[in-house]
Amino acid sequence: MGVKEILKRVFTKEKRVVLCGLDSSGKTTMVSFLQTGTFIEHTPTMGKELNTMEVQGIRINLMDMGGQSDFRDLWLGECAHAECVIFMIDAYARERFSEAKDELWKLSDVFKKRSLIVLANKYDLQPTASLGEIIDALDLHKLPSFEILPVSCKTGFGIVKAFMKIYYKLTGKQLRKKISPKAVTVFDQGGIPLTSSSNNDILQGGLFAAINSFVKESFNSELNQLKMGGNVIVFKRSKNLMGSLILSDSDNIDVKEAEDGLNELLCHLEHMCPEIERNQLDTEKLSYLVEQYASNLL
Ligand SMILES: Nc1nc2c(ncn2[C@@H]2O[C@H](COP(=O)(O)OP(=O)(O)OP(=O)(O)O)[C@@H](O)[C@H]2O)c(=O)[nH]1
Ligand SMILES: [Mg+2]
Known about the structure:
298 residues, alpha/beta, Rossmann fold, Beta-Lactamase, 6-stranded mixed sheet, 5-stranded antiparallel sheet, binds guanosine-5'-triphosphate, binds magnesium ion
């Protein structure tokens, strides 16, 4: 180990987070979504697996616990040394709520001193249990404190919010989103808008038509930014799609950050919709994926 690495370790604050929950609730899928920005299928975790992430000077050691019954005895020991415990539950698997409750309550002594965040996963499926139903089924209100958030580790729905919550629990600091677009739009390669997700009616009127024609005209140029009526519109292209973000010109816009965010969205869509390669675009599926992922941006 070199001097730089030693100094880095000394000066980097380390925090421990333990991720537990029944087998197949989606823990490893969450870790890989945080690391890659998209969905990857995994085999069950044997024992436990340590993942390290660095976020704004904090090294987060995220221990991903195997959820099969053979490995559940390991949870308590790990949780006792963690600053934050995440308990993941498959919100679609109501038949397993009582098993999840039994396992969660075996850890209850830990929650007297440590933060618990319950992540209700698989919110891309229908019908999932409501958060209220999960709170009741797991008797969460009998714990000294807890927070519960809905997520989907497949579509990315709620993932950034969940991570921001974890970061706050660990550091007491708010991790601020650097971009907060007014609208996210995805076009096909011909500049035809396929779907749009906006947090207000920004796309009403002439703006949308203007973006549309700009996309068509700029398709073969390197233009990737347009300023219009107090807005900055950022464009990005992937192999089969094109996307735009509308941001307010008055915010301190980090265009690079916006481009990176848009790029990640397009990569995720290409990855989740391999049928685009065969020109078999399912617009409904694409709209759903954009809507779910945009929860991280808007
Ligand atoms: N539909 C849907 N499926 C998901 C989601 N998250 C995970 N899955 C699927 O659930 C299955 C289990 O995911 P894992 O991440 O391996 O679950 P785990 O909690 O790590 O399981 P163990 O390692 O055995 O404890 C996989 O087939 C995933 O593709 C989600 O948000 N939505
Ligand atoms: Mg796993």
